[in-house]
Design goal:
Number of domains: 1
CATH class: Alpha Beta
CATH superfamily: HIT-like
CATH architecture: 2-Layer Sandwich
Strand content: 15-25%
Shape: globular
Structural class: alpha+beta
CATH topology: HIT family, subunit A
Bound molecules: adenosine monophosphate
């Protein structure tokens, strides 16, 4: 039986709409539907990795690609004063979608420590 697609796989496959800002053979990036900062973009691999702590050695290049794309998108979005990348893992980490994604947050000064 085929595993049902995650919501992010459906976005990557253009089955549900999203405000895409980047796509390539390995990942897509789109605006978060519930932004937590003036700029809040998700960078998502097309291939399903459920969460970062479950990534395999074979995912290493893809994980690096996501971070490089996040930096490119931050530049495109004009975040010269800085930005934050976040990956939530599991319930205590605040994960709500079981398909690894990098949050790119910026456009205001971000507090530390995070909530
Ligand atoms: P996380 O809580 O780290 O798993 O992040 C999931 C993120 O996905 C949240 O910030 C949601 O607002 C966002 N999200 C959920 N559904 C959509 C969607 N259809 N389009 C864009 N962002 C979404």
């Amino acid at each position: 039986m085929n595993t049902p697609k995650t919501i992010f796989q459906k976005i990557a496959d253009k089955e549900i709409p999203a405000k895409l800002v980047h796509e390539d053979a390995l990942c897509v990036a789109f605006h978060d539907v519930a932004p937590q900062a003036p700029i809040h973009i998700l960078i998502v691999p097309r291939q399903l990795i459920v969460r970062v702590g479950e990534a395999q050695a074979s995912d290493q290049a893809l994980l690096g690609h996501l971070l490089r794309v996040a930096g490119q998108v931050a530049r495109q979005q004009g975040l010269a004063k800085g930005f934050r990348l976040v990956i939530n893992h599991g319930p205590d980490g605040g994960e709500s979608v079981p398909h690894l994604h990098v949050h790119l947050l910026g456009g205001r000064a971000l507090g530390w420590p995070p909530g």
